[in-house]
Amino acid sequence: MKKILVVGGAGYIGSHMVKMLLASGYAVVTFDNLVAGFRDAVLGGEFVKGDLKNPADLKELFKAQDFAGVMHFASHIQVGESVLNPGKYYQNNVANTLNLLDAMVAQNVNAFIFSSTAAIFGEPDYVPMDEKHPKLPINPYGLSKWMIEQILADYDKAHGLKSCCLRYFNAAGADPDGELGERHDPETHLIPLVLQAASGRRENITVFGKDYDTPDGSCIRDYIHINDLCQAHLLALEKLIEGADSMAFNLGNGQGFSVQEVIDTARKVTGKSIPVVESERREGDPARLVADSSMARESLGWQPEYAELATIIEHAWNWEKNFFCAERKR
Asked: Sheet harboring 111-117: ordered strands across?
């Protein structure tokens, strides 16, 4: 049984990944400092509390375990915060990741899955965006991820460390079984914010801009179901373990859904009115961000299973209801 290290496995994407790895027959070790993650989101395997900023934690971990591969989800992800506090993002997303890579090299672990982002591209020159799109990040978050992608190319040349960089657009939805879902504090993603308005956890949802050059005037984004995202990670991991060269793929649904479409679909799924407040555009919000994921489909044999927006929202709503009910009982 191959053993996989999931760094940040107590977070949103990481916890879903841990569940999928276990279901696929892998042994899993989750390494997380629980600053943004939740211990109860890790549904199996071994859990090690530690921090990437401490090389001693990593040295001890890698000497005690024999890993076939590493999956890295332990990044700070808030664009606005990265602009106000860039040092936090360069320290965690870049310097701490270097600690992880050096620990891998020291123990000759050569398969690395990196959680990257569409933010490496900056403002879109064209849509849908493929892997050849220029990389011109416009904030420290996107720049920190692009730095690691370039560092990984250097580590491949120098140390033979093979990697796959997976650039998400908008991860969304929840575990179809209802065991896991999206828990950020503070929450900044559209679908959970809309559903919190539906459940009564917040008064309304704010729409930033209704004057974009789109059919209904609101921004269009590419939402990919969390399980489909994890499936792509699993396929990439297996390719690397089998000896594939380093890779990089854009991951998205391939369709764009507007903010208004998300709200309208959530109203149908939940049966709730969902109050809306309209506000001015936010600086740096492009009208459209949509992925061209054809390379991932061809190279990995990846085929999203939950492509419908209503399905994504239905799974997220099931989680929101379960979580809200549990919170009210506490």
From this structure: 46-49, 27-32, 3-7, 69-72, 111-117, 162-168, 247-251
